[in-house]
Design goal:
homodimer; about 550 residues; alpha/beta; 2-enoyl-CoA Hydratase, Chain A, domain 1; 7-stranded mixed β-sheet; 20 strands; globular
Chain lengths: ~550, ~550
């Protein structure tokens, strides 16, 4: 059972230090503090436990340290920045674990880029030693990369030549799409086990600069200082504390304050319910800051995030998640109005950006999602995105009951998908004006209006409702989980592609393919044979 | 040994009839005329042999029947249009064959869309019976789809619910990206084994119309007639004949007139050489028409296309193709000038479009490509694209020998990649002006100029040349072929994505993944168990 919650006080592998506008995130992986048995985290190599701490630090920097403008990522180990994902951990992991591990680490790196793009927190990778594989992929997720020039330290992606797999955390995509390295040079670099050192790495665009050992820290510090000056100080802001989530975890599910997960293990589906805020909600930024992480949107989405990660990683056989909401439409819409009215405030901005990240985590979860809109539900505004994220949406058509959905300005761009579109735009690619019409609709929509507007897949009446749901859940959970994963990954992201969708779609799919090939994971495969005296034996047939 | 050449006279499974501006391509698959043993092609299901004929027909319609404006695709079988790829064929095929089969059928469907977009040949699918799986995917590659309304015939994608795999020929992508079906409806449709019939299929956008059996042929004919009238007659054009290629095939390779393939089987690489035209070349369209398929660009690229298909399908262990050219730069540039000066003429236009398709076939080939630029080579204009397609380019830097490359207007847009960019644009994403500078360069570039312009990866001198090449070939062919395939698929297509790149990158990668999963191909997998009394047993863990 993997726990995704942590705090800086309990980090084992990272040190987070904040000094005014500059934070330093230092990697110092403890060899023996592994998440599972059977491997040691040598040379700052990482397992999921290390990355959970990194993800936590990136998140806390935004909420707890909004004054930070530059985050320096470096290592405490001499001559090594980071050796990437631990190979023995990968070699002993199940296919499903490898895939989920890569997805989470990808999300962490995308969160770094999101902080840089939207929160004014630039990331500088200060490579005081070699960055190989996932180590270089962490660096390339940062805005800038500086490498020590000690005659030995290099950047490298040795996965293809040494391990017979791909760099699994977006490295190939970021080489050619972010740093726009020439493709032939990217080809050479990605097949060169020893990588490239300072001068050549700079010439090819793999790093932004290199400094001799004696001047490295000083030169990086001076550059960071200049970045802070260029950007100008942020408006004085005092962070809020992200307290541990309170969750009651049982065999039957997980109960948070605003989120419930009920597991129907035998039938391989879960009910996930998000509850609307209750009682008086804040309307000013002062009140929001006062509430801190107890403010509904932040707390509810943190709980949702945790629930999704839990389902992904700890409940592999749950193939379908039934999304439900409980509460009053108006209470949700009121929150949306408050957030949008105050979106220039740093905490509100961070909250909205975080809600968007959680919903993207849902889009990228390899489980089916059905949304059920029933009496007492509140799929409005930000929570309507849950229904729009779902693979299908069922809405009860019962004139005797109040069953409604509603849009808000939140559905018009605050919560973009990985492809850069809103979920309404993705839904109505065939007739973009339909998205605008839905947004202009005054008041809530009942089942017939919602169906006419194209917001729901099925709107059965109360005679059919229960049977329809039961049969459709049974059918869905009977299908091949692999075919569903590939199908959903294809249908959820129509329209434009971005670097993120390329990483999650194209690159991840290839990596998943390779992760099952005998040439990587068979008894004579490269991943299996890594570090052994035997050499990998390949079947050279090209597919 | 699979042969990709055929002619309408020897088709076994299709009938091609041309009547003025309308061609009819009728599917009538012969059950026993299979490419391999162990299956029967019932219900107009297809194997690679059927698709080779289709690809040939699509190609001939452009060159031999330029007067055709509408191509009607239909079936001779009662109540069945096409049941898609034969499941027993898939079930008994190797992984590599399945992957290569899907790639070829995808290229054929993209060629249909290319004919429609660029050659004024619209495709109308006249579904006189059920179109399921690859049958519907063939329909959705057409511009319009009409379905008979006989109370029984449906369109469907039963791969996920029945076979535990994906529709492998672009179906999912075209559902949401071409026909822009709402994603929740695409989800329902793609999990509904029995599919949808006329009325609902039309409502959901899966077909463009439906007619009762008694009026089906008449209604389709009337609609086709109206399309012809709307488009207006094409300029009178008389097609040219595509004669069989002359090739000398031996154990050591293949010798065509302008293309040589030399197999170094033990070392797992091939030398592929394209020779420039020799002697006086035509300069007017009359002369070009007179030469027909013997005109250098058409013949050389037909030979190159055949060589690539041969290497893909019949030489699986060849992991690296060394691209070479022989001849005079100026002879190639002269052809480019003639083609561009006459590009408004249908035959010249078709020739250029075909050259672009062949180069895209190269981009999509799962083998490494190294280009070698040596004395006597002629990487100029259209042939420079070979060097730009290569994963790496080596150019001899020898002041005593004439070793040069040259650009032409052909490198500025006539031969787009699947991502919509030119190969120069894809190469210089980091500094788009570099592509323009290269194009503006007067005259040929020697090794130093080419290196400075960013056109070559390595430019060793004559002392290093042979060793460098030998070592790099050895290194490349020693790496995991699977990791290389995934790496090349990621690095070759930086920048924008299109429906084509989504099909070849995202969808294909997922399908390849699923094609190895025990849930599909294991002893209890759905593909293995299809048609047997036993039922598939899934491992329900989601990855």
């Amino acid at each position: 059972m993997i726990n995704f919650e942590t705090t800086p006080e309990s980090y084992k592998h990272w040190k987070l230090a904040v000094d005014g506008a500059v934070a330093t995130l230092t990697m110092d992986v403890q060899e023996d503090e592994t998440l599972a048995d059977g491997y040691k985290l040598k040379l700052n190599s990482y397992d999921l436990g290390v990355d959970i701490e990194l993800a936590d630090a990136v998140q806390r920097l935004r909420f707890e340290h909004p004054e930070v403008q530059v985050v320096v990522v470096t290592s405490l180990k001499p001559r090594i920045f980071c050796a990437g994902a631990n190979i023995y951990m990968l070699g002993t992991s199940s296919h499903a674990f490898k895939v989920n591990f890569c997805k989470f680490t990808n999300e962490t790196r995308c969160a770094i880029e999101d902080a840089s793009a939207n929160s004014g927190q630039r990331y500088v990778a200060a490579l005081n030693g070699t960055a190989s594989g996932g180590g270089y992929e962490l660096a390339i997720a940062c805005d800038e990369i500086y490498l020590v020039d000690d005659g030995n330290s290099a950047v490298s992606l040795p996965e293809v030549p040494l391990l017979g797999v791909l760099p699994g955390t977006g490295g190939l995509t970021r080489l050619v799409d972010k740093r726009k390295i020439r493709r032939d040079r990217a080809d050479v670099f990605s097949t060169l086990a020893e990588g490239l050192k300072g001068k050549r790495a700079k010439e090819w665009g793999l790093v932004d600069g290199y400094f001799p050992t004696s001047k490295f820290q000083e030169a990086v510090a001076a550059h960071v200082e200049s970045l802070v000056k260029t950007d100008g100080a942020k408006a004085a802001a005092k962070g809020i504390k992200l307290n541990p989530l309170q969750v009651e975890a049982t065999a039957a599910g997980r109960e948070y304050k605003y989120v419930s997960v009920k597991l129907n293990r035998e039938k391989r589906y879960a009910d996930l319910t998000v509850r609307a805020p209750q009682g008086v909600q804040p309307s000013t930024v002062a009140e929001i800051e006062q509430l801190g992480d107890a403010y509904w949107p932040l707390q509810a989405y943190r709980e949702l995030d945790d629930a999704l990660l839990h389902l992904r990683m700890n409940e592999l056989e749950i193939g379908l998640v039934c999304l439900r909401t409980e509460g009053d439409l108006e209470d949700v819409l009121a929150v949306d109005r408050t957030l949008l009215a105050n979106r220039d405030h740093w905490l509100v901005r961070e909250t909205i950006l975080y809600m968007a990240r959680v919903l993207r985590r849902l889009d990228l979860t390899a489980k089916s999602f059905f949304a059920f809109i029933e009496p007492g539900s509140c799929f409005a505004g930000n929570l309507l995105e849950l229904a729009l994220s779902a693979d299908r949406t069922y809405m009860l058509n019962d004139p005797d009951a109040k069953v409604e959905v509603a849009t808000s300005e939140f559905n018009a761009g605050a919560l973009p998908m990985s492809n850069g579109l809103t979920r309404l735009q993705s839904r109505f690619l065939v007739a973009p004006e339909q998205a605008d019409e839905v947004l202009k609709h005054e008041g809530a929509l009942d089942a017939e209006a919602a169906e006419a507007a194209g917001l729901v897949t099925f709107a059965p009446d109360d005679l059919d409702w229960e049977d329809k749901i039961r049969v459709d859940i049974e059918e869905r959970t009977s299908l091949s989980p692999d075919a569903l994963t590939g199908m959903e990954a294809s249908l959820r992201f129509a329209g434009p592609e971005t670097m993120d969708t390329k990483i999650y779609g194209r690159l991840t799919a290839w990596q998943n393919w390779i992760f099952q090939r005998p040439n990587a994971v068979g008894p004579e495969g490269a991943l299996t044979n890594y570090g052994k005296p035997t050499q990998a034996q390949f079947d050279y047939k090209r597919t």
